[in-house]
Amino acid sequence: MTKKALVFISNGSEEIEAVATIDVLRRAEIDVDVVSIEANGHDAVKCSRNVYVVPDKSLDDIKNNQYDCVVIPGGNEGSKAMAANAQVGQILTKHYQDGKVVAAICAGPRAFLSHKIGIDHKHTITCYPTVRKEFTDGEPYKLDAPDHLVCHSTYTENGAEGKVYHLVTSQGPATTMLFALKLIELLKGQDEATKVKDGLLV
C-alpha cells in the first residue's frame, strides 16, 4: 500500500525545509499532500525568503484524510502560525494518537508544544538552536544533544506489545535531507532510505 504524507505550509514557512522534504519523500514514491493552512488555502504561500510555493490542497480538503506521516516545517512566522492554528493541532493530535509519524524541523516543534503533542510521554526533541530557549529541558520534552541533527523519539504504551508513538525532529535547513531520509526509513524501511540517499549523493 502506498504511504501517504502531509506537509503543512503557510506564509513564512522555511522553503528549503518544506520543499526539500516534499521532494525527498516523493523520490521514495510516498504520496505527499502539500497543504496550506492559510484562509485562501489554494493560493501560493510566500515563504520566509520570498519563494512562493503552490499547495496541493487546503485544510478543508483534507480534514477527513488519514496519513502515515505529518510534517511541520520551520520558518519563524510559519511555525508560529501553525502553533496557533486549531485545525493543525487537531490533525497533529489525531495522527499522533493513532501511532503515525509526526515530525517537525527547525522552529516547527513550537507546534508540538502549543498543541501539547505527546507531552505525557517524555519525548526527546531537537530544534533550531535559538528556539531551544523556548523549551524547558524535561518539561515536557527532553532536549537532545546539540550535535544530534535528527531525533526520533518513541514511546511504547503498555510495554513491548503496546502502541508506539513517534516524534521526529531536526534542527534546520541544512539538516533537512537527513530529516526526510529518516522519515523514509520509518515509512518504507532502511533499504528504501539508502536507495534515495545514494541517489541524492548525501
From TrEMBL:
GO terms for biological process: glyoxal metabolic process; response to oxidative stress. Pfam families: DJ-1_PfpI (PF01965). Residues 3-185 form the DJ-1/PfpI domain. This is DJ-1/PfpI domain-containing protein. SUPFAM superfamilies: Class I glutamine amidotransferase-like. It comes from Rotaria magnacalcarata. GO terms for cellular component: mitochondrion; nucleus. InterPro entries: Class_I_gatase-like, DJ-1, DJ-1/PfpI, Prot/Nucl_acid_deglycase.
